[in-house]
Amino acid sequence: MVSPLDPSLAGLLGSIAYEGIAVVALGYDLADIPRDLNGYGYLVTRPEGLATLGVVWESSLFPRRAADGTALLRVFLGGARRRDIVGAPHSVLIETARRELAAVMGIRADPRHTSVFAWPKAIAQYTVGHIQRRDEIRARLERHPRLTVCGTSYDGVSFNHAVKSGRAAAHALATRLWGGADRHASEGPGFSAGAIA
């Protein structure tokens, strides 16, 4: 997107590596899950040798995501440890998610619901030199005061990091363009500052 404006900036942005992820959503009757879902889920460490990066117990985190008596689990597969799995057919992703979920949680029943979402370049990789790359990107952006970046590619990969990054970008743009966000807070909901994620 920024290549016509600043090829050097585009090159720096392009130097951040990304890995793909596949998310398999599985819906079950609570009676088919042999443990209480009294948490947020779990992460899987590399030594376990699984394609699963983690599982979010979606209906425990967000009420009404599943009907009464049922649960929705999201299995995250792939990343840097299993690049091959992200582009696999949906049937393979579902089978892998079910097999690995059964090994960890003991769920043997067929799910009531399955759906698959795959993103080939979803997770920024904080490889050696990431902080220097990030700082070079921000230094190059100083040439473009009406442009900023935000998202999990820069200062942290969690959802909380993404929200914090977005707020910081909006504040920085408001300050640069209008001298501060507070001055325009009274202008109503139409006021916004844009950013490139």
Key descriptive features of the protein:
Polyamine Oxidase, Chain A, domain 2, 32% helix, alpha+beta, elongated
Task: Please specify the SSE layout and strand pairing.
Blueprint: H1 7-14, E1 18-29, E2 41-43, E3 52-57, H2 58-61, E4 70-78, H3 83-86, H4 90-105, E5 113-124, H5 130-141, H6 159-178
Antiparallel strand pairs: 1-4, 1-5, 2-3, 3-4
Helix pairs in contact: 1-5
CATH topology of the largest domain: Polyamine Oxidase, Chain A, domain 2
Q: Looking at the structure, what is the overall shape?
A: elongated
**Number of β-strand runs:** 5
Number of separate structural domains = 2
Strand order of the largest sheet: 2-3-4-1-5
Describe what you observe in this structure.
- There is one protein chain.
- The chain is an alpha+beta fold.
- The chain folds into two domains: 7-15 and 127-187, no CATH class; 18-124, Protoporphyrinogen oxidase, mitochondrial, domain 2 (Polyamine Oxidase, Chain A, domain 2), CATH 3.90.660.20.
- Helices cover 32% and strands 21% of the residues.
- The chain has six helices and five strands.
- The chain has helices at residues 7-14, 58-61, 83-86, 90-105, 130-141, 159-178, and strands spanning 18-29, 41-43, 52-57, 70-78, 113-124.
- It has a five-stranded antiparallel β-sheet.
- A hairpin with an 8-residue loop joins strand 2 (41-43) and strand 3.
- The radius of gyration is 21 Å and the shape is elongated.
